[in-house]
Amino acid sequence: MAPHGRPLDELILTVLSQSTNDRNRDVAFLRLRERFASPAQPIDYEAVLAAPVSDVEEAIRPGGISKVKSARIQAILASIAGTARDPDEPLSLEWMRDAPMQESRAYLCALPGVGRKTAACVLLFSYGLPDVPVDTHVSRVGTRLGLLRPGAPFEELHDQMLSLTPPGQELELHVNLLRHGRRTCFARKPACEDCALARMCPSRGLFS
Ligand code: SF4
After folding, report:
1. 143 within ligand 1 shell (Cβ under 6 A)
2. Mean pLDDT, the chain, as a whole number?
3. 76, 169: one domain
4. Model's pTM, two decimal places?
């Protein structure tokens, strides 16, 4: 999966992904695109920001809790516009491509409702920058494997995960842990008997 170079799309996608599944998230994003983009053009986020919040809410309704998400999307866009680095492109985040990681991460985490996981998604998936999103699957698998401290706050989990990731392997590690959590290391009844990592896992068999 190559970095796609669209940090604002990634940011909005993570808002749409809250409390829903991937399919509903994608439908909501598609609807936003249909409402606020010309054919074959990127979403006009300045139009999203300027629109009545009810228009945004209507567009993203298939993603669930659309009232909350539409307000959050506009709050994020307003915050970005209020700290614009390029007055000609007030909603551009392209400066992150070449900025120091810490600076970009701090900027993203200061946006309304944005935390380390969202920031890591934006940086990793948009530009391939070395950060690892720790979602519920990654934290569960990482904790069971003894890589992460049980009960650690998300900030610490992200720092831990990053410190043990070989440089350049951030995306692969994230995708593999996520896949393992979805396919084998289930939350309630992990399939330890079929797990390729069982030999090295201190938690094997504890949930049967
Ligand atoms: S052995 Fe069980 S608990 Fe450990 S990673 Fe595999 S499925 Fe998860």
Report:
1. no
2. 94
3. no
4. 0.89
